[in-house]
Structure formats: structure tokens, C-alpha cells
Amino acid sequence: MVEETPNTTNNKPKGKTNRPRAVYSWTVADVQKWLERHCGEYYDHYASNFAVHEVTGRTLLRINDNSLLRLGITDVQHRDAIWRQILKLRLKTDIMEIRDIQKRNTNNMFYDYSIA
After folding, report:
1. Signal peptide location in the record (predicted)?
2. 63 near 36, Cβ under 8 Å?
3. What is the pLDDT of residue 84?
4. How far separated are the first and last CA of the chain, in Å rounded?
5. Is the distance from CB of 34 to CB of 89 less than 8 angstroms?
6. Residue 87 φ then ψ, to 5°
């Protein structure tokens, strides 16, 4: 008699999505990974600048063009390219927050009338 074993290939808890960590909780190392992935062309030039200034995810979302200048990114094209990537990251973060709010509001819409 063959005994069936449970499927262990999918160990994800039900109801949980494989969602990336919130940018607000990123460490300096996480920002370095993001910089390398999304601004790889400029990574070797500016990674140390971001590290020296201890740019975390929370800081990254608050950076503006003047901040990039203070980080030592003086080349306009480099600054514009990095700025575009930061704006994309902000947009993605805002969309995730909006979805969370919508999900919470949807869950709060259901009221158990049997209690009243």
C-alpha cells in the first residue's frame, strides 16, 4: 500500500501573498540592491555616496533633485536617470498603499447584523 505524502512544494501560508517588503523598512543594504538593480549603469559611480550618507528606504522616498546633488551626483543625465527610478519607486509604493487602504475599507464594510 502506497502512502500519500502531503504536497510540500508549496509551503506558502494560505491567504498570504508573496509581497515585497515595504520600502519604508529598507535598510542601507536594501537600497544598495535597489540601486544596483534599477540604476546599474551608475551603481559603480554612486553606490558609495548612498552608503556614506546611510540612505535607507525611508530616506530614498524623500530624496529630491537637490538631495541628489548633495549626494554628489552632479552629472545632470545621471541625476535625471536616478531621479526617474526614484519616482517610479514612489509611484509603486503609493499604489501598494492605496490597495492596502482599499482592502481595509472593503473588509470594514461587512457588518454582522446578528450581533446588533
Report:
1. none
2. no
3. 97
4. 54
5. yes
6. -60, -40
**Residue tagged 559603480 (cell numbers):** 44
Mean pLDDT, all residues of the chain: 85
pTM of the model: 0.74
Q: Give CA–CA dist 57/35, Å, rounded.
A: 11
* C-alpha–C-alpha distance, residues 91 and 30, integer Å: 18
The answer to whether 39 touches 71, Cβ cutoff 8 Å, is no
Average pLDDT over residues 12-26: 74
All residues at 6 or more sequence positions from 59 whose CB lies less than 8 Å from its CB, including other chains: 31, 53
Per-residue model confidence (pLDDT) at position 113 = 54
DSSP tag of 25: G
